[in-house]
Structures are given as structure tokens and as C-alpha cells.
Amino acid sequence: MDKIRKSIKAEAETFKSLVDTVMSENIEQANRMEELLMEELQRQDNTYKDYISYLEDRDKEFYGFLAFPKLHNNPIIFSPHDNLKVRRVPEITKPVSPVFTAGQYSKDDVAKLLGRAIVPDAKPENRKIKLIKTDSTELKPTEKMKKQEREKHDAKQTLSLSSSVTKVREYTVPVVGGVRHISVGKSGRLWVIDDRGKLVQTNLHGLHQQKILASCVCSHTVTQDGDLIYTDEDNKTINRITKDNAITEFIKTGKWTPTSIHSSHINGDILVWMSHVKETKITRYNKTGKEIQNIHRKGFIDLYNIAENINGDICILDWMEGAVVVLNKSGQQRFSYTKRKSIFSPHAICTDIRGHILVCDRHNKTVIVLSQDGQFLCQLLTKQHGIEYASSLFVDDDNNLHVGQSNTNKVNVYKYLQ
Hints:
CATH class of the largest domain: Mainly Beta
Region (Disordered): 136-159
GO biological process, one term: protein polyubiquitination
GO molecular function, one term: ubiquitin protein ligase activity
Distance between the termini: 40 Å
Protein name: Tripartite motif-containing protein 2
Strand order of the largest sheet: 1-24-23-22
Keywords: Repeat
């Protein structure tokens, strides 16, 4: 349903854009008509002014004749035809005022233009959870690896945005047509959801390890323990996949439909965005799945992604309003970022070790960077970098940015901090 909602809204945005274009053209045409009318009226006004001036001159001339001292030499008496002749009043036309002819349309006409969602007349198929297991080996950390981790941690404290972005690698995710959501585990395992809700596990070398068919997977995240948890919209549950690939039900959300999930890097809490009819809320659970906080939001916000920043801020996307909304730990809104002079279509969000907020802008085909306080910093990636339908972002432990797009199963990795 998420894909259908996105398609409906994208169609509506296109229609709105066309309406705005036609309206602007009609207003421009009306302005041109007004200018032409004003020019014509000004010409007629000048014609009358000239004629009035002519009459005033003739009036003075007649008064001069009346004051003539000698009757037999008075031109008005002896040459009356020429001296009494007055030019006719100039003829002018009444301008034709423009009229507006309203268009003939109805709600049904607009519905036909936009299309509609329908349920195909097909027999529903039973869903199954199926694992294809393969042998995998996880290496235990050596002293050298531990030292490297310490060096990485020290380096993170001095990292900043680079003046240029470098593509460091590209990998292909098997058996998917597009990449809607990415999670990368510490062991190098990569989890991806496609537009059909199919959850696939692979590794950073692009080697297919296992495929999991689950009920409408919408979002997933890797916990501090290294397990993957994902939202199941149909069954209104949050499920857990352990390192040995066992799937268990973790949290039941009752009447609420879980759509987006994030595991905190600060304390391991789990943030879940849920909706019920037109009610929405963010629920915080601890590591064991105990509910510890509810943040209710007024109105319906169409959320694609949720993330937590290094200061504990909760970052969410409001697709309908075209905004990045940031709340503090208590759920109070700190700020909202949007573009007032152009269309802004945020589709994915994540944060990094420096508190930057990274956002996919689908309409402008860019990935932008905001500061921790909502200030626009830069366009990190653009169409020149191959950004077309960016729909997923993830910053790994090496501070590299993974970018997935809905129109391809290739994921590009960029180095953007130095």
C-alpha cells in the first residue's frame, strides 16, 4: 500500500503542477489584454483632449470676431461660412471587454485524470516464511582489529564534510528490482527491502546468502545486539531475525500499524512510527520490547523514515507537507525544514557521527545535508552522480554513505567525510 500511496501522491503533484502552469499562463494572458485595453483607452482620451483644445481655440477666435470695431470689415459677417465651420466630434469605438469562460469539469473528470486504486479480482495466496540457509563464518575480533576500531573512533571526533564526494564502491543486491530500504550489520551483512516488501539478506560483496519472504515488510533496523528487527504491516507486529536466522515475533502493536522503525545507537531503544486511521504516534520501546514512551502527532503525516540524531533528536519525514520534522527527546518539535520556493519531496533520512541530517529529495534528484539545527549545508549528491530515484540512505561504521534507488538493484557507496 505504501507504493500505491506514493504513486497516487506523485500523480497528484504532477496534476497540481500542470494546473499551476495553466493558471499562470491564463493570468499572463489576462494581463496582456488589460495592457492593450489601457493603451486603446489612452489613445481615445488623447483624441478627446486634442478636440477640446481645438474647441477652446475656436471659442477664443469667435470672441475676437465679436470684439471687432468696424462692422463692414467683420469676417464673421462677410465670410460666415468659413469662419463658423467647426470640425465634427471625432468618432471612437467602445472597446470590447474580455470575458472569462469557466471550464466544464466535475469531480469524476478529475478522478479519471488521476486514476484510482483498485483491488484486482484475484484469489489471495497464503503467505509463508521461508529461509534459505547457507553456511557463514563470523570472525572473532583480534587485537589488531580492536586497535583499528579504537583508531576509527578517535578519527570520528575530527571528521567534517569533505569538499568533494568520492564513490568508493558499488554492489548489486540479487533478486530485487529496486532498493527501498537498507540496513548494514557489523558483521558485513546487508539487509534490503524492495518495492514489493520482499526482504533480502546479502553481504557487502553482493553475494546472495538468503531470501526471506515475509508479510509486507515496510521497514527494518539492526539492533545493538546485531539482530535485525522489521515491521509487519499486515499482522501489526515487529519481528526479530537473530544471527542464526531464526524469526520470532518480538512486539505486537495492537490496532496500530507499524510503518517505520529505528534502533537507537545511543542506548539501544527502539523507535517505531505507527498509524491508525488518521491517528499517528511514535512509540519508544527498550531493548526487551517494553513500551516506555508515546509521542502523539496531530493529523496524518505520511512517514517514510525515522531516525535518531547524536543528541537524541527524533528526525522524521512528512511527505505530504514536503518537510523534515525534528523533535526533541520529549517529543516537542524543535524545527521543520522545507523549501518554500520550490517542490521538496523527501523520501529517506539518516544521520551520521557528526550530527548531520542526510535527506533524499526525489523531486530535485538530490541528496542534501542539514545541520543538527536544521540549517541547509549543501547538496551532497545530484543527478550528475547518478541520483534519479533515491529512496534509501544508510551511513555505515566506516562513515560511508550507502544510497539505494527504487529503479535499480545497484547500491552506491560514497565517502563524504574527511
